[in-house]
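Format notes (please read before filing issues)

Several people have asked whether sequences and structure tokens are stored in separate files. They are not. Every record keeps both together, in the order shown below: the sequence lines, then the token lines. Line labels are part of the format and must not be stripped during preprocessing.
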Amino acid sequence: MTNTAPPSLPSTAMILAAGLGTRMMPLTHHQPKAMIPVLGRPMIDGILDHLAAMQIQKIIVNVHYQRAPLIQHLNHHALRERIVILEEDERLETGGGVVNALSHLGPLPFFCINCDSLWLDGPIPALMRLAQSFDAKTMEALLLLYPTVKLPAEHTAGDFFMTPSGRLVRRKPPHIAPYLYTGIQMLHPRLLAGQDKRPFSLNLVYNQALNQGRLFGQTHDGLWYHVSTPEDVKNTEAALTMLGYGKP
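Then the structure lines:
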């Protein structure tokens, strides 16, 4: 008998919020990037909304630079009982930050999201689509990708090529790749197996998974906005306002 049961959904997630927000200066002089408002709401709140809709039970948030405002915000958030805050006295970067959180994330695949990722879902929520597509037997990581043709010129170089099966191949200059990584992904904890708690980028383990044919991608079918500079904030707010968001 064929097993037609739907895939189990992750119960844990991590929001990477320990970055320095250098490109977001001067907006990050006194607050972390996760707290930068877009249409009056901190960016991290949009991510928390998506995770709440997925009924995620434990949300790890790592903090470092200008952490006090973010900690205060999370401690008063409606989801505060589900949030675990990990303070990094030494910034561990993306890879080290996830390694530091593994004991909280558990043995099963989990969502991992950059704090500057802002997206609108298509017909099926992006996180649901990732969960439905994740195959723990063949994948270490499943990255949500966005077509570069939909992006402003400064992002059009892209990050990855993708085979028909979804396996990823990195762009090599001077080539232009059709997909950009959105900062939204689903990871298996074994991707970080054997890694020490030290500062390193997730790109290190992406490359290992890529060489093993275990780094996959999925195209986002909604809208995505990369909010990493003050100009990005203005452009994103203008785009969302045109779509009717933020209006009374």
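For reference, the curators noted about this record: The radius of gyration is 17 Å. The first strand starts at residue 12 and ends at 17.
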